């Protein structure tokens, strides 16, 4: 049996956890769950609710009743079980005060045992009988309003209103006399109805409390790899419109052991673009700051330095390969192997515009000559690489691919005299294309997690770029069995080891 904790969780498709409500807090990732998304969540919710409601035992009912010509009878109903509930129509609607969910035209089937006993002056014996009855409850209406707020750093789910109303019930007795049947209906109709109403209401209350405590256990940060974590702390209250719910999370990357100065990033004003055509369940909007915080985090974690000692064309890592472009290098260190010590000198800046995402990477490349086991730095070239980034959704991750737009070179210092940058341009182009970009793309290809609860998968996602924001428009599929479905497990990417496996066919050592 699925615990009723599973109740209502799906109202929130995203990682919901928050911090202090402060008006100056900015969420850099926001998610709008559209009416289509809410309907999808509501359908799962009702399915889960029914699964956790049935079978449901109701308290025993007993009564003394007076039957004409028979006299006073002790009647009892026991083992009352709701074993089936069907919901024919349901709606979900966000409003000013909360999210209203209504299931109407619901039916429930109950089974129970009946028992009676009486004695009359006619016969000095106790007469009793027992049997089985089935009851069908029709036209049941169940309605509830869920409140959603950011409270003391947590997303708080509360049940604001809840009601269950039974319109009609019909009773079938197996066995028993006809007088019994009428007496039964008269005596118990109302009691069965109110037992059903009370029990279902109570069950919904319990479900919401359990769901709320599950939300409470959600993490504020999720690890992305060994270097960074993503701050999924909720900020601000959820925003309810008449057809959507918008929630905001901090959304910034942090180096695992570093505190980000939040005032460092500023949210750009929201652009009007959104997922309208075709309508999607979910619209996740990521500010430019999210990407720049990732860039900062990897930069600050010293991740952007590496020594290149193997390249596809190994000839380029020997002074002989540079014989004609920098003759003085070859003259001074004939036939010596070389290393390239590449160091990104400031966090790459990412700019998002409606037709383009570009990133500029400033780096220094030191040429080291390996002479008699000694590493001798001979020159340092400053390399500014301008790239454009394309994005795609892989699983629940946002993955990227960097393409080279252009680059510029300037000599920072040299122990082998001046040499013209245009001479080494084609060598640099080869190195960037065959070493640098594949290395960066190897990481970007794995992507970065979008904050989606485990068990939900993005489906038919497309990506829009607007001024300074990326918008992911997507439907969502639910793919996990009840047993593993709980919100303590987020979709977690595979951890990326600090030292990556070498990118074939050359090695890039850190
Ligand atoms: C109670 O009801 C359930 C479901 O109808 C049935 O399986 C079970 O045998 C009943 N128990 C008793 C003691 O009658
Ligand atoms: C529940 O009641 C309805 C209406 O009488 C009936 O059609 C249906 O077969 C019942 N379901 C079960 C499982 O007994
Ligand atoms: C929802 O609100 C908008 C204005 O915010 C209004 O134009 C629209 O008619 C409303 N829709 C419904 C179904 O109430
Ligand atoms: C995560 O984001 C929240 C809200 O912006 C902020 O208050 C909190 O300090 C951040 N956590 C860390 C570890 O920086
Ligand atoms: C690589 O160059 C940086 C300076 O750009 C220097 O600090 C670092 O020690 C060098 N690393 C190696 C292994 O030579
Ligand atoms: C270079 O190092 C290797 C082993 O690391 C050693 O066998 C060799 O003698 C060294 N050569 C010089 C010139 O120091
Ligand atoms: C949630 O699911 C995970 C993995 O399926 C499991 O290890 C964990 O115990 C579950 N937590 C709860 C509260 O059920």
TrEMBL record:
Keyword Glycoprotein: yes
Residues covered by the Lipid-binding serum glycoprotein N-terminal domain: 33-258
Family annotation (SMART domains): BPI1 (SM00328), BPI2 (SM00329)
Keyword annotations from UniProtKB, A to Z: Glycoprotein, Signal
Signal sequence annotation: 1-19
Molecular function terms from GO: lipid binding
Keyword Signal: yes
Superkingdom to which the source organism belongs: Eukaryota
CC annotations in GO: extracellular space
Lipid-binding serum glycoprotein C-terminal domain segment(s): 276-474
CDD domains assigned to the protein according to its UniProt record, in alphabetical order: BPI1, BPI2
InterPro entries noted in UniProt: Bactericidal_perm-incr_a/b_dom, BPI/LBP, BPI/LBP_pln, Lipid-bd_serum_glycop_C, Lipid-bd_serum_glycop_N
Family in the record: Belongs to the BPI/LBP/Plunc superfamily. BPI/LBP (TC 1.C.40) family.
Protein known as: BPI/LBP family protein At1g04970
């Amino acid at each position: 049996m699925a615990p009723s904790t599973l109740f209502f969780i799906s109202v929130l498709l995203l990682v919901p956890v928050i911090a202090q409500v402060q008006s100056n807090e900015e969420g850099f990732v926001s998610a709008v769950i559209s009416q289509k998304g809410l309907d999808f969540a509501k359908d799962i919710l009702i399915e889960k609710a029914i699964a956790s409601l049935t079978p449901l035992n109701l308290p025993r009912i007993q009564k003394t009743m007076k039957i004409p010509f028979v006299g006073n009878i002790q009647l009892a109903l026991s083992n009352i079980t709701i074993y089936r509930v069907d919901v024919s129509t349901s709606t979900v609607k966000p409003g000013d005060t909360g999210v209203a969910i209504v299931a109407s035209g619901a039916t429930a089937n109950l089974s129970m045992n009946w028992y009676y006993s009486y004695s009359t002056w006619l016969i000095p014996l106790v007469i009793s009988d027992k049997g089985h009855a089935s009851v069908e409850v029709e036209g049941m209406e169940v309605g509830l309003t869920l409140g959603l707020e950011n409270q003391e750093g947590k997303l708080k789910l509360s049940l604001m209103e809840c009601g269950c109303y039974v319109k009609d019930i019909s009773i079938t007795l197996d066995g028993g006399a006809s007088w019994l049947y009428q007496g039964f209906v008269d005596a118990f109709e109302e009691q069965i109805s109110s037992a059903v109403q009370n029990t279902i209401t109570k069950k919904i209350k319990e479900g919401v409390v359990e769901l709320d405590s599950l939300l409470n256990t959600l993490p504020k940060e999720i690890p992305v790899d060994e270097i960074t974590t993503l701050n999924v702390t909720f900020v601000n209250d959820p925003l309810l419109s008449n057809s959507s719910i918008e929630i905001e999370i901090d959304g910034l990357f942090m180096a695992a052991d570093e505190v980000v100065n939040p005032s460092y990033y500023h949210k750009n004003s929201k652009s009007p673009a959104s997922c309208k055509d075709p309508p999607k369940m979910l619209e996740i909007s990521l500010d430019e700051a999210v990407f720049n915080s990732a860039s900062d985090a990897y930069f600050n974690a010293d991740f952007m330095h590496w020594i290149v000692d193997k390249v596809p064309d190994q000839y380029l890592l020997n002074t002989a390969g540079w014989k004609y472009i920098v003759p003085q290098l070859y003259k001074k260190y004939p036939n010596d192997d070389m290393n390239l010590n590449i160091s990104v000198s400031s966090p790459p800046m990412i700019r998002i515009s409606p037709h383009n995402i570009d990133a500029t990477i400033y780096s220094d490349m030191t040429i080291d000559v390996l002479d008699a086991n000694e590493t001798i730095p001979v020159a340092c070239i400053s390399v500014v690489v301008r790239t454009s980034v394309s994005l795609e959704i892989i699983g629940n991750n946002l993955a990227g691919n960097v393409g080279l737009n252009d680059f510029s070179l300037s000599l920072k210092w040299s122990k082998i005299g001046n040499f013209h940058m245009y001479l080494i341009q084609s060598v640099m182009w080869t190195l960037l294309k065959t070493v640098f970009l594949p290395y960066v793309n190897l990481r970007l290809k794995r992507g970065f997690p979008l904050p989606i609860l485990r068990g939900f998968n993005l489906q038919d996602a497309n990506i829009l770029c607007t001024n300074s924001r990326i918008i992911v428009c997507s439907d969502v599929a639910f793919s996990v069995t009840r047993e593993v479905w709980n919100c303590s497990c987020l979709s977690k990417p595979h951890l990326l080891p600090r030292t990556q496996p070498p990118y074939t066919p050359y090695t890039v050592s850190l």
